[in-house]
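User: For a reading group we're discussing how well predicted structures match intuition. Take Thiamine thiazole synthase. Before you show the prediction, I'll give you the sequence so everyone sees exactly what went in.
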Amino acid sequence: MAPAPIYNTQRDQVPQLLDKSGLKDTGPLVSGTYDCKEDYNGDYRFAPIEEAQVSRAMIKRYFNMMYERAISDVVIIGAGSAGLSCAYHLATSRPDLKITIIEANVAPGGGAWLGGQLMTPMVVRKPADRFLTELGVPFEDEGAFVVVRHAALFTSTVLSRVLALPNVVLMNATAVEDLIVRPDPTSQGQGQRVAGVVTNWTLVALNHDTQSCMDPNVITAPVVITATGHDGPMGAFSAKRLVSMGLLKELGNMRGLDMNRAEPAIVNGTREVAPGLIMTGMELSEHDGSNRMGPTFGAMMASGIKAAREAIRIFET
Ligand code: 48N
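Assistant: Thanks. Here is the predicted 3D structure of Thiamine thiazole synthase, as structure tokens, for the group to look at:
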């Protein structure tokens, strides 16, 4: 039976939600009138503030968010190009879903800040250029593929679009340390179903051996989408965890580079690899043993969109 979404926002409300969530004046930081002046001739004056107000402004919002997101509809692990493309498509297609992105790095974006070998242009093979057009990312058309002038132009644009959506929250510098699993009710208790994630601040997760007392936080969700990439300190996290918890016999291990085989394999292979767990992006190459594609990013965008559609399928069956 499909899990019931938490919000009741309708699809047609998305345009004004997108408009409304632009950066607007948040109103006075302190009550009443205050002395401030925008004068670049030597008399620039800020409104007065107490340091505690800054801490409280952050604490209130961050911990309210943690409290509210302890129960989510969908958790996306990894804010790389696949995870962010997935978040955008899912959140705009289903504004009623409460989507929480967990990203281990302080800086989200994963490997999509550069094109390849530290060169900045980003190649995207058609038809994935349609997603760039939807986001409003300009590119140069080279026939079978397009080139975004700087990879960061794609990554910063998709990131800003995702963070402007009211049903999405990003918890960066936060690592998923484990998966929540429960007996799968649809398998007479034989199988296991992923039902959320176990998190800690990344600095704690990376130092557990010296801080074993640091118990983690948990976020429950009927659907988890994992897009943790194929390398990096925690790459292919969920694929490796499925093996260590006995839900996957062994890793397929990513094969050598072949763009023409790799990209369709990742897009078409994006799926629910375990009940409640959808895998996408380059993490899938480690799970399935598919090839890598190197510095071309269309499959990350299209597989992220595919993962979003797989999640929507779960909420609609
Ligand atoms: O960019 P990545 O690594 O992964 P994808 O799948 O979004 O994009 C892959 C793409 O950048 C390529 O690798 C390109 C196409 N090259 C291919 C090739 O042949 O070399 O993003 C994964 C994100 C990162 O930001 C990690 O920090 C994060 O996932 N992450 C985690 N976040 C939270 N908890 C974890 N356990 C975790 N593990 C990784």
